[in-house]
Amino acid sequence: MVDKSITNPDFLVVGSGASGAAISWRLGKAGFKVVCLEQGPQIDIESYPHTQKDWEIKAQHEWNNNPNIRSLTEDYPVNDLDSEISPLMFNAVGGSTIHWTAHAPRFHPSDFRVKSLDGVADDWPISYKDLEPYYDLNDEIMGCSGINGDPANPIRKKRPMPPIPLGEDGVLIAKAFDKLGWHWWPSDNYINSTKYNGRDSCNYCGAVHLGCPKGAKASTDITYWPEAKKFGVKLITHCRVTKITTSKEGKASGVNYKDIRNNGKEHHISSKNIILACNGIGTPRLMLNSKSEKHPQGLGNSSGLLGKNLMFHPYTMLVGLLPKNIETYKGPIGNSLMSQEFYETDPKRDFVRGYTFQFNRSSGPITSAIGLASRPVAWGENHHKEFESRFGKAIFLATIIEDLPERHNSVKIDKKLKDSSGIPSPKINYSLSDNSKKMIQHAIQTGTTLLKTAGATEILTTPVSKSAGWHLMGTARMGDDPKNSVTDKWGRCHDIENLFIVDGSLFVTSSGVNPTPTIQALALRTGDYIAKQFRSLKK
Amino acid sequence: MIEEKQFLENKHPILIKIMDLIVPAIDDLPGAGSMGLLNELKILCKKYPKIYFSIRRIINSIEIDPISRANGSFIFLDIDRQIETLKIIELNLSDDFSILINAIYSVYYMNKDVKKRINWKYNSIQPQGFEILPWDESILVEIKKIKPFWKNPDN
Ligand SMILES: Cc1cc2nc3c(=O)[nH]c(=O)nc-3n(C[C@H](O)[C@H](O)[C@H](O)COP(=O)(O)OP(=O)(O)OC[C@H]3O[C@@H](n4cnc5c(N)ncnc54)[C@H](O)[C@@H]3O)c2cc1C
């Protein structure tokens, strides 16, 4: 029996991650009846592995970033055999922000005008200015540590907290950038450098990619959700939406879902409007699985673009080995400084667009041995020597390459693979473009120069990291022309007026930075739009 | 899983040898197998069955290796030949081999004597965390000399 208090809401949100939480909060605040269905559980902060002695083993298994390895009931398998990059995500309240490393950069103004500036891909139907107030709002709610003055980015509102300290290794890298005369700046992070909004400050244990037992890293289960619930938003866990149902007229009428703890029976909730926030793979999967007579190619897919133009951000990993152990496992693994020296298009190079360097860290002894983001330490007679050359001495330079949209890179429905509820799984086809390959070569050269300048005596290079599909974008792009996009500039499906999308699927291009602040800013902007347009729904 | 338990019990000598080859002796520490870490590996296999399945495939493949058979067992081969055999397995069963390596490294670097040798003083990373150099704005002196260079498409 479906609980009456959740039937026929004004808005039914599917997915409670970065974007689902932001829009639920906004619409709850505006006074709408909002219900959010999430296939995963609410994570108990006590269950994070950091306090246990086998934390590095758990990181390889039940806390792995890859759902295919984790294989929890709430995960769905993804067929990535034909993809050069494996998609990574987490399925729980908070979504992938449970695992994210919380690096929170913004798109550049130029990122919204790629076609006009460089003649490739498409311009976005919105600009940096349109998103700016929502970036600011999101920084406040998630809690941003950072500092103004970055010459590579527009000035913006003062961050609520000072930057995360760079650490000894960060200072070394910063000085190397200075020596070369290259840009760098302390990263914006949604990790508390001081106490903030009732949440503790970071104590630099490092492993933010496994969750944060102190609540110092912002994940939406501890930022947006507690506030959204105060506004009356109902969040229901363990509910896997299997299909979006449509009326005779072709409008969205509700969803079918299964309680994954009590498998078998399918339930239905009707809703006036539906908002999808299942991420750049989960959303096209659900829409493609929701075919009907009126929508034979999948819901909202008259353009044929649903699931197409998948972008990941190829990551090139360079690991510099220092001669001295400076305990490079101390401090957040993700990011404390970045460089955008090679971010904007330069006609002198043989590629368009550019990339960001991010300074990452290593981790504990097991992770060092199995080779985080690079090959494992050799087995056999060289094992100890090689381990010693890495442990506490490895500095990571991650290069985030702007991925341009290409139709053949896609999410489709796999013909055989299914999740634990019997729902067809996504299949990914993805290969690197020539432009990305050229950028990777360039980044290897410049990154090597940088690491040598920082004092690295050996450099391990991984041109494309397979297990780096952290960013899932572009599979239901926004645009003004319904023939060339899935939604309008508000995330509203061109084909179905009461169906919205708010996650990374909307991206027209990927930029050369991490996407989540942009995803959340888009969700807040859509929330504002809806709050004005749908005023009459409120009692 | 009774089958798993029996299989692993029967393969003690060969597993210990493999562990020693993967992580050999150093200083006053014996190799990973001779240190007695097999029990930890078996616990891991029980918790994560995919490790057991990989180990089983690897051992089965070693046991059908003609040279091992001709010598009675892998454990009677000379060390160079044993390493050679493992390298072939690494090539042919690369996914399984990488699971085995990860598992052996995991139990090895959890061991308290090993931690002491590499100077890793921690059982876990929380609740104590780590201390790092505090934020110091003077690091920005040089970079602040660079003029804003972001592109404004509206200009
Ligand atoms: C290890 C890791 C590190 C990262 N680091 C960074 C970083 O430093 N900076 C950055 O910007 N980004 C980072 N990311 C990416 C970031 O986490 C994502 O961009 C962001 O979480 C995407 O938000 P979303 O709302 O689109 O989807 P998600 O946060 O993935 O949430 C989607 C939610 O929808 C639910 N769902 C899906 N399908 C269904 C269904 N059918 N029924 C019910 N529920 C469903 C899922 O369970 C999930 O909870 C990282 C990601 C990972 C995995």
Plain-language structure description:
Chain A has 12 helices and 17 strands. With 539 residues, chain A is an alpha/beta fold. Chain A has one domain: FAD/NAD(P)-binding domain, CATH 3.50.50. In chain A, the strands form 4 sheets. Chain A has a 6-stranded antiparallel beta sheet with strand order 4-11-12-13-10-16, covered by helices on one side. In chain A, strands 5-2-1-9-17 form a 5-stranded parallel beta sheet, covered by helices on one side. In chain A, helix 1 packs parallel to helix 12 and helix 5 crosses helix 12. The mean pLDDT of chain A is 96. Chain B is mainly alpha-helical. Chain B has one domain. Helices cover 57% and strands 0% of the residues of chain B. Chain B is elongated and about 75 Å long. The interface between A and B is large, with 69 and 53 residues. The site of flavin-adenine dinucleotide has 42 residues of chain A, from helix 1, strand 6, helix 8 and helix 12.
Amount of helix of chain B: 55-70%
CATH architecture of chain A: 3-Layer(bba) Sandwich
Q: By CATH's scheme, which homologous superfamily of chain A applies?
A: FAD/NAD(P)-binding domain
Q: Oligomerization state of this entry?
A: heterodimer
Number of helices of chain A: 12
The best one-word shape of chain A is globular
End-to-end Cα distance of chain B: 69 Å
Any idea of the CATH topology of chain A? FAD/NAD(P)-binding domain
SSE order of chain A: EHEHHEHHHEHEEEEEHEEEHHEEEHEEH
What ligands can be seen in this structure? flavin-adenine dinucleotide
Radius of gyration of chain B: 24 Å
Radius of gyration of chain A: 22 Å
Can you tell me the residue ranges of chain A where pLDDT is under 50 for at least 5 consecutive residues?
none
Order of helices and strands of chain B: HHHHHHHH
